[in-house]
Design a protein that fits this description.
There is one protein chain. By secondary structure, this protein is mainly alpha-helical. 70% of the residues lie in helices and 1% in strands. It is built from 25 helices and 2 strands. Strands 1-2 form a two-stranded antiparallel ribbon.
């Protein structure tokens, strides 16, 4: 999808060479070696970013009891702390497409990684619960914008590999989640038992994740939120490519070349070595316009912006008119509720059942690490099915079985319940995959991603907080687990609806 179709490449090569002041700029960044280097750098940036999108949460879950004791938090305040992630994702995630249109998606993700690093470095030493919450919010702000823009970047740069690239991203995300849950407690013990050191060390990987995005800050590359898949327009440039420059790709000429662009500031168009005046050329251009228009239409993917339109001028969907968008948003919210309850409270459930702290952290890591293989398998499977509803139902059944086990025998079957809940948590990569499948174009994916994630995270805010309140006032985990089980039923229902084979463009209209 990124290159031209064979017939189009043939038509392009038959046009005479046009010499213009923009030609060197079009050829240099569009070279094969530069393109390959850009793609490899993007893959590295996506993987490193995904690795850093959850340690801020799961490292805290593993040390929640120590943090509560150190900061004097009650169960309700701890519940508020576990509700901060979805709150930040809802508030800041909705800003991501607008920021990406202005600065470029790569630049926004780069700033997001820097915010994660700063927040994680500051929060253990901020002093008091308020400072801890504020620094956590800074890190979560960076996570929020990156959450929204990752599907956009994948759709723009890898339109024919949405499933596999989403799987790679989700697999790295699950690996980072599990790694933080597994090693935070042992590393904290090795560092002298200071929970501040155990939490602060996760700022280091976030710093490393900033580096691959730096070239895109300069070039405003990695696709803007409003870009169409497989196109480069305006600010959607790779490293070293000037924003607003001609559109190029590997093995293709710029559209300006095909249409015979005029010299900047000149009054004649140069075809080969022959100068043609505008007056003499007018009749020929009039005759050729229908053919050029047909070529332009052939090159555009369904739902893409017209050639030459600015990225910011892409028409917006009336996303709230789409039932599929609402179903996907509610599904996203309910799976996020389950995920953040699990990340924030599951280790504490096991510890209260008599499981040692280190083992409880490993159990949480097992739950998270299940997403490593499944996050690669499930998106690929989902893209091959016309309806993703059966996958939603299978994941929901695993979740219900895991909650039943936590209620009946939390310590005796701890490893089995951790595995089952790990499978259920793979609703997240499935939701991301459906975001890419339920819209045809880059702008559609950007709007759907922002709407589904922001609305979904708003829906998920009360869940972790309510679990903390129920835990404190009931003195046990019976009521919180019952709540978690009850929420799984509507998650399965709306996920089944969101899995139907349709797009938001068809439902919402332009």
């Amino acid at each position: 999808m990124m290159g031209l179709m064979p017939g189009e490449e043939t038509r392009t090569k038959t046009h005479p060479t046009v010499r213009s002041s923009a030609a060197p700029e079009a050829r240099e960044p569009g070279g094969t070696s530069t393109r390959a280097w850009t793609t490899r750098l993007l893959v590295l940036g996506i993987v490193l970013s995904a690795l850093n999108l959850r340690p801020a949460i799961t490292s805290l879950g593993a040390l929640l009891e120590e943090v509560r004791d150190g900061l004097g938090m009650s169960g309700s305040v701890a519940g508020l702390l576990t509700s901060v992630p979805p709150l930040c994702f809802a508030v800041f995630g909705v800003m991501a497409p607008r920021l990406a249109r202005r600065f470029g998606a790569g630049a926004v993700v780069c700033a997001g990684m820097a915010a994660i690093a700063a927040g994680l470095a500051i929060r253990p030493y901020a002093g008091g619960a308020a400072g801890f919450l504020a620094a956590s919010a800074l890190a979560l702000m960076g996570i929020a914008v990156s959450n929204v823009l990752m599907p956009v970047i994948v759709k723009h740069w890898f339109p024919d590999r949405v499933g596999s690239m989403t799987g790679l991203y989700s697999m790295a995300l699950a690996l980072g989640t599990a790694l933080a849950a597994a090693v935070t407690v042992p590393v904290t013990d090795a560092l002298g038992g200071s929970w501040q050191s155990g939490l602060g060390l996760w700022a280091g990987p976030a710093v490393a994740a900033v580096l691959p995005w730096l070239p895109f800050v300069r070039g405003r590359g990695a696709g803007t939120a409003a870009s169409a898949p497989g196109e480069r327009t305006g600010g959607e440039t790779g490293p070293g490519k000037r924003a607003g420059g001609p559109e190029t790709g590997p093995g293709e000429r710029s559209r300006a070349t095909e249409a015979g662009p005029e010299r900047a500031g000149g009054s004649e168009t140069r075809l080969g070595d022959q100068a043609v005046s505008p007056q003499a050329d007018g009749d020929r251009q009039t005759r050729d316009r229908p053919a050029r228009d047909r070529q332009t239409r052939d090159r555009q993917t369904p739902g893409s912006a017209p050639a030459g339109s600015a990225a910011g001028e892409a028409p917006r969907l009336r996303i709230t008119r789409s039932r599929t968008a609402w179903a996907l948003a509610v599904f996203f919210g309910l799976q996020a509720t389950a995920a953040y309850i699990t990340m924030g409270w599951m280790a504490q459930i096991f510890r209260d059942a008599g499981v040692p702290a280190g083992t409880a952290g490993l159990l949480l890591a097992v739950t998270m690490v299940m997403g490593v293989p499944l996050a690669f398998v499930i998106p690929r499977l989902a893209t091959r099915l016309p309806h993703q509803g059966p996958i939603v139902l299978a994941l929901g059944v695993c979740g219900l079985a895991g909650y039943a086990g936590l209620y009946l025998a939390p310590a005796a079957g701890a490893w089995a319940w951790a595995l089952l809940l790990g499978v259920a948590n793979c609703a997240f990569p499935l939701a991301l995959t459906m975001v890419g499948m339920r819209a045809r174009s880059g702008p559609g994916v950007a709007q759907l991603s922002a709407f589904a994630q922001s609305t979904g995270y708003l829906i998920s805010i009360p869940g972790p907080l309510l679990v903390g309140v129920l835990y404190q006032h009931s003195g046990g985990w019976g009521l919180p687990i019952a709540l978690m089980s009850a929420l799984m039923i509507p998650q399965m229902a709306v996920g089944f609806l969101a899995g139907r084979d349709r797009t938001v463009e068809d439902e919402a209209g332009r």
